[in-house]
Amino acid sequence: MILEMSNIKKSFGDNEVLKDISMHVDKGEVVSIIGPSGSGKSTLLRCATFLETIDSGNISYMGKSAVTTDDSGKAVYSHHKDLAEFKSYFGLVFQQFHLFPHFSVLKNIMDAPIKVQKRPKDEVYKEALELLDKMGLTGRGDAYPCQLSGGQQQRVAIARALALKPEILFFDEPTSALDPELTGEVLKVIKQLAEEKMTMVVVTHEMPFARAVSNRVIFMDGGVIVEQGDPEEVFGNPTQERTKLFLKNYQK
Amino acid sequence: MSLWTMIGLMAGGFGKTCAIFFLTLLFSLPLGMVVALLRMSKVKVVSGIVRVIISILRGTPLLLQILAVTYGPHYLFGADVSKNKLIPVVIAFAINYAAYFAEIYRGGIESMAIGQYEAADVLGYSKFQTFMHIILPQVIKRIMPSITNEIVTLVKDTSLAFAVSYQEMFTIGKQIANSQTSFVPFLVAGVFYYVFNAIVDFVMARVEKKLNYYN
Ligand SMILES: Nc1ncnc2c1ncn2[C@@H]1O[C@H](COP(=O)(O)OP(=O)(O)O)[C@@H](O)[C@H]1O
Ligand SMILES: [Mg+2]
Q1: Beta carbon of A204 within 6 Å of any ligand 1 atom
Q2: Is the CB of A216 under 6 A from ligand 1?
């Protein structure tokens, strides 16, 4: 098991955003998370990637505990050094890309492997070129993010995350900031990664895409997992009223 | 006294004008960053104290601060006012300009989107690496126009050293003006500063252009 989250609780002030959520992701699995806006999907990813701290619950990567809960029910995070190791297990692709605008495309991809993982530059360079090819960005290495379309920028962001060779890659609505005609090229890349058995968790509103690529679909609403399972089951034959309603509204 | 004699005498003080200018930049630019970071400290006492110090430095005339640093030690401890006035003058300038630069740095740093920090965090950069490699280069580009403004002001402010009779160009010009009862030295000084700032503008435009390799 790559990721296991259990009994995750997270509030912002009085607003309980994650209400006792448990989920796990196996190696090679592609999990889609769908649900209405405000249901806590981003918060769940941000908790998994340590951008938010959970109030209570457990998080482990590769069978190793990163966050545990003490007797008083409060979340306890691993030490700084260990968290750095846990961070090397995952990558995150943001809705707004968040590329580094002052770095060229190549430097965006190569900088973290060199500076964070201390890997040799020529090896990283070779891999970066391969990643560019894979993302359909051959020859764009010297461009700056501002010179690229949104779809190209998002593919650079995916390459940047992949360059660190994560065990699992999280996507938070990777195509929501894109013009409709550019979503296809990004979804294609994610689909290709799925075929290569990259372990991924994708928060998305692209229902046909979720149905096609995922091994499992999670429907979240109001900070809880309402329903999850095989995509054909969840999309074709949902058991919960809330799921039915959500999917029906989406078809319009 | 001929015009050329005046210009010659005043040019003799230009080296000292340049000394104030370059030494002030040398010390205040990095000091400003330290002050900015302290100003943004999460420790309320630290940020509070620094905030008050900055507001005093910006809210009182630089002229007074130069007088205070130069003659303060004499009034407080009976210390001899040092013959070399460059040191107190540069200290006063550097501290005063550090306060202004600190506020510019802080504005630049606070204008950075949180997403840059979050992306760097997930990629595993340390806090120090994030600041030095990701945040600071972008901040420098953003604040360059404000920095240029301050540098242009500094060129003109060097003339305030006349208050402690430090023999820089303007002080010499003022002395000539008094002894010759002539307004000409002031005109000469005006031209000096104007040309100096034309050079500053030229250099800074080049720097800004260099930083324009991305948007
Ligand atoms: N940093 C934050 N501070 C306060 N409230 C937040 C914060 N982030 C998210 N929320 C709240 O948490 C809830 C879930 O948000 P989010 O996880 O972004 O939902 P989703 O991604 O499913 O649209 C929303 O009510 C939102 O307003
Ligand atoms: Mg969201």
Answers
A1: no
A2: no
